[in-house]
Design brief:
253 residues; mainly alpha; 11 helices; 80% helix; globular
Length: 253
């Protein structure tokens, strides 16, 4: 039985589907960026369902291309199991776990945004020092890039085959658990890069694109870790500049 052609066809279908979803996500984000107003606060004046939906779209656009190697590795293992007559789990179930995790992150992001907006409404100091706080977020995000936790999470994202071999779980629930675990590593790798969208603007397409390129490079390219450290220094330097000159922050201009 020749499984090469079906496996290649399934791989192309999965990769094409992921990239198509990512492209659709980018189209929605670009469209939304023309209608949203960051001056309406961290929540952009949105209710929880719409904010979380936009957050998930953002994650699909930015993270599916970087999650593709892991998802394709899972699909390849399942195809090999099918060739041996073993029980298989559909790849979409594994992928669904990422969406569940990203939705949870969106809920947390919305809660933080609501607290920030309410705090700004009741405490003028926050409004007066919004740029300086944004600068601190940039510095913290840069510093996190240099931590051991960042390195551990990044190593899991850069070696999908190794993760599969060491973390395999049987059955449908096992696939969900694997997706959640690996999704958590991916989120742990770059969650503070997403946090800088609060000071830079949630619908800042340039910032979204640069973060996406950095995340992809870190996870996929040989020079990725070095680029991540260079980005860390850049974020720290930019954060210091923002604290000294608040107008350097796009949302403050």
């Amino acid at each position: 039985m020749n499984t090469t052609y079906p496996l290649a066809r399934e791989r192309n279908l999965i990769l094409g589907g992921l990239l198509l979803l990512a492209a659709a996500g980018w189209a929605i984000l670009i469209w939304q960026s023309r209608t949203m107003n960051d001056e309406m606060g961290l929540t952009m004046g949105l209710g929880a369902p719409v904010f979380i939906a936009i957050w998930v779209v953002m994650m699909i656009a930015m993270m599916f291309p970087t999650a593709a190697p892991m998802i394709l590795t899972f699909a390849r293992v399942q195809a090999n199991r099918a060739g041996r007559g073993q029980e298989i789990v559909p790849t979409w179930l594994f992928t669904l776990a990422y969406l569940v995790l990203w939705t949870g992150a969106g809920i947390l992001a919305y809660a933080i945004a609501v607290l920030g907006d309410r705090g700004a409404d009741h405490w003028m100091w926050l409004m007066d020092h919004a740029a300086e706080i944004g600068g601190m977020v940039l510095i913290v995000a840069g510093a996190y890039q240099l931590t051991p936790l960042k390195n551990v999470c990044l190593s899991k994202c850069r070696t999908p085959t190794s993760y599969i071999l060491s973390g395999w779980r049987e059955g449908h629930l096992g696939a969900l658990r694997m997706g959640l675990e690996h999704g958590a590593y991916c989120l742990g790798c770059c969650w503070l890069l997403f946090a800088i969208l609060f000071p830079l603007g949630m619908m800042n397409v340039i910032a979204l694109a640069l973060i996406t390129l950095l995340v992809f490079a870190e996870k996929s390219l040989a020079i990725g870790p070095a680029l991540g450290k260079a980005a860390a220094l850049g974020l720290i330097a930019y954060g210091i500049v923002v604290i000294v000159h608040p107008d350097a922050l796009p949302t403050m201009m």
